[in-house]
Amino acid sequence: MTAAAEHGQLFAALADPTRRQVLDLLAARGEGSASALAAVMPVSRPAVIKHLAVLDRAGLVESRRQGREVLFSVRPEPLESAARWMAAVAAEWDARLAALKRLAEEG
User: Which pLDDT belongs to residue 8?
Assistant: First the structure.
């Protein structure tokens, strides 16, 4: 998958406020099961499972089995990659705007 496709999938996953809440809870707790997350969220366990699946496809969570439970935790690497990409885009725009400013001031 290309970096652009990965970032697109990441941003699509983060566009949903419920998924952001799931990530926030996992980040605060370190890890959690779908049942534990559903217990403190305004959505059902099946809905949490669907949101976790989207986050997993975007690479934002990882899972591990502990007995009968599946525990999820946040994977920060995709967020760090997206942050680096956004910083590079911002730097590029800053350079373009600085060049435009120089041209405007010269002319």
Answer: 87
Backbone angles phi, psi at 15, to 5 degrees: -70, -25
Quickly list DSSP for the chain: --HHHHHHHHHHHHTSHHHHHHHHHHHHHS-EEHHHHHHTSSS-HHHHHHHHHHHHHTTSEEEEEETTEEEEEE--HHHHHHHHHHHHHHHHHHHHHHHHHHHHHH-
Six-digit token string for 28? 């605060």
Measured between alpha carbons, how far is 60 from 78 in angstroms, rounded to an integer?
6
Please give the model's pTM, rounded to 2 decimal places. Answer: 0.80
